[in-house]
Amino acid sequence: MKLYFEKQLNILTFYGLITGGDSQWKKFFALLLRFLTVDFMMLLLFIQLKDISDMADFTILINLLFGSIVTFVRMKSMIYQAYRIQKLRHELKMELKSYKMNEKFQRRISRMEKILNFVLVFVFTGTLSEATIPIFSYELAFKMYNPFDLNNSLVFWATVAYQQISIFVISRLETSMDALQNSYLAYFSAMQEQLCDELENLPSTQRRTATFDRRDKLIEIFKLQKSLKKMCKEIQEIFNLAYFIRGLGAVLLLCTSVFTLVETDDPSFKYGFLFYSIGMLIQLIVFFYYGNEISLLSNRFSYSLFYSGWHEKDDQKTTLMLMKFSARPIKIMTMKIFQVDLSTYLKICNFAYSMYALLENINNSK
What we know:
Layout: H1 4-14, H2 24-48, H3 55-80, H4 82-96, H5 103-131, H6 133-137, H7 153-200, H8 214-238, H9 240-263, H10 267-306, H11 316-325, E1 333-334, E2 338-339, H12 342-364
Antiparallel strand pairs: 1-2
Helix pairs in contact: 1-7, 2-3, 2-7, 3-7, 3-9, 4-8, 5-7, 5-10, 7-8, 7-10, 8-9, 8-11, 9-10, 9-12
């Protein structure tokens, strides 16, 4: 059975973000698809800005434009780091063979998969809901620059099709990139939790048997913890820019989403936008939650080591070496500016609400 992060890597390989053994025409198709649905859509939305006068339309356009910019930057970052992502994939698969992947481990990973699949349902429900707007009201789901006459039925439905395909591709790319990053963090937190449990359940030296050596077990845990720290540092370097743009984009996307939901009257667009926003919000919570879990469990590792019977003479040197190594807990940072944890998530929400209040004041003053 494929691991969850491998499924996301396969999806991103289809869109050409991760290099594989695909033929040249598949790579060309992926490049063309990304250009038409992300790059070209971003350009059309940017040109449309000069013709927007209504505040509600402006926030919708800003939301879509900035969302496509975030997707564009994250795509380029992932293409640039494709080799290192593949390398990390191999390292993690090899490292997981050293873990028991017991029921507790499996339960944590299963919970993560259910949440991310739930997000996927929400996002695509929102996308499908927005697709009904042209059918019932004969209007585009959102305004964008179009040099042709929309009164022409063929032009109108061709534009509708282009919008829906673009939104679908952007949504799929965003959810897959988020799911990849979140699944890596979920596996790391599960691995860290298992190392803590093994330390806490480690027998004392008095109960050493012919088949069990406590010192050897401590050295094995030390090696696994060292490898885990290395992979956490690696993922931080790989997704550094992606994490930063994700956090920065979340502020603007959250405030414009709330403003749009309050000001928009069209039920199809409102429900579609609501489902999409909830899905992306859950994805964001999961990201910061697992970053927070890694830090907490890394702190727990030091305490687990302290209470693991280190005072036994035979183990003091090994234990002290491990204590020194684990003195600094693992922290997932982005651009060395903010830590990926729940306190940062709350700051983002507070700042997004402040921006929403500012938009409301500007709108009411007109």
